Amino acid sequence: MQFDGILFFPLTPFDSKGNVNESVLTEHIASGVEHGAGGVFAACGTGEIHALSAAEHATVVRRAVEVSAGRTPVVAGAGGSVGTAVEQTALAREVGADGVLLLPPYLVNAPQKGLVDYVRTVADAVDIPVVIYQRGTLDLDPDSVAELARVPNVVGFKDGVGDVGRMHQIVLAVRQAHGEDFTFFNGLPTAELTVGAYSAVGVPLYSSAAFAFVPEVANTFYQAFHAGDALAGRILREFYEPFVRLRDRTPGYAVSLVKAGSRLRGFEVGGVRAPLADPTPQEENALAELIETGLALVKEG
Fold first, then answer.
1. Strands 74-78 and 39-42, how do they pair?
2. Catalytic residue among 118, 133, 206, 222
3. What is the DSSP letter of 93?
4. What is the Cα–Cα distance from 62 to 96, expressed in whole angstroms?
5. Were 61 and a residue from 40, 76, 93, 271 both cysteine, which residue would form a disulfide, CB within 3.0 to 4.6 Å?
6. How crowded is residue 106: how many other Cβ atoms within 10 Å of its Cβ?
7. Residues 253 and 246 sit within 8 Å (Cβ to Cβ)
8. What is the pTM of this model?
């Protein structure tokens, strides 16, 4: 798989009865692809994989494959117990996904050997490219990642921990053991704040939560950053940093605010499922003001 540009993690829309809204999902994914997404990561964290049934997970991934229609890679979320992760991975392959993003096992703290075995078991079970998502209970050291990079279908590593020094060690260890044919990307919430630090240690790719509701702002920042344009700094100061402060008010707002932002932009995505909580009306008003600020910066640029 080759990724080029911002990695898009679509939301999973729910209708008034709480069911997956496939028509809105289609519209949402199509919008992201049309705005130049470098990859579509369906039914992952932003897509509330933790709250989806097996049938809903299959629906979301299948629709992402159909809408993307080969224009950009589609990666499906998988994780939890080994059995669940294998089932989700097999389904992703069946419906035509290009790979899976392997999320952590639930509620289990394990030694490095056990974590390596978890990834290896899923990768060995289904012949499809696997990207490891380091966060929570799946916290790997450089030697473990280098070992997993030798598994033929383990092709990438997404970091959601944020230890830049250790990430640099991981990149060096994998490059030494495996060469350049391995993909790294920054998966921290609101990764734009850390893109400079991660790029400096060999990790230029990143996922963008903002792309799911203000792709214009996300794309303008991406272009300005890579061009060395001072506009990137203004967008960080005036849009992303206030957004992060709003996000950090409540656990789970990394998803809830994105969904609220998408509603404010006209997509009927519904609210989040428990145990996440939707923002208050006051917080949605603050988010609406930030969106206007971001879009105004795009026009200035």
1. parallel
2. 133
3. H
4. 7
5. 76
6. 12
7. yes
8. 0.96
Q: Is the dihedral of CA 70, 218, 51, 157 positive or negative?
A: positive
pLDDT, one tens digit per residue, over 91-138 is 999 999 999 999 999 888 999 999 999 999 999 999 999 999 999 999
Give yes or no for residue 301 having a pLDDT over 80.
no
Q: 110 burial class (0-12, 13-18, 19+ CB within 10 angstroms)?
A: middle
Q: Is 133 a catalytic residue?
A: yes
Could you give the angle at the alpha carbon of 237 between the alpha carbons of 195 and 216, nearest 5°?
70
**Distances 7 to 72, 74, 96, 147, 281 between C-alpha atoms, Å:** 10, 10, 19, 26, 29
- Asked if the bond preceding 275 is cis, omega within 30° of 0, the reply is yes
Say what angle helices 281-300 and 215-227 make with each other, to 10 degrees: 50
Q: Give me 112's structure tokens.
A: 């490095």
Q: Which one, of 14, 41, 38, 37, lies nearest residue 25 by Cα?
A: 14
Tokens of 128: 């499809």
Helices (H), 5-72: 22-34, 54-68
Coil/strand/helix, residue 14: strand
Calpha distance 47→78 (Å, rounded): 12
Q: The tokens of 50 are what? A: 């933790």
Q: Which of 158, 222, 240, 253 is catalytic?
A: 158
Q: Is 271 helix (H, G, I), strand (E, B) or coil?
A: coil
Given this model, what pLDDT does residue 212 score?
98
Q: Are 99 and 155 in contact (CB under 8 A)?
A: yes
Token pair for residue 94?
């069946």
Tell me how crowded residue 95 is: count the other CB atoms within 10 A of its CB: 17
Please choose, from the candidates 115, 101, 187, the residue with its C-alpha nearest in 3D space to the C-alpha of residue 145: 115
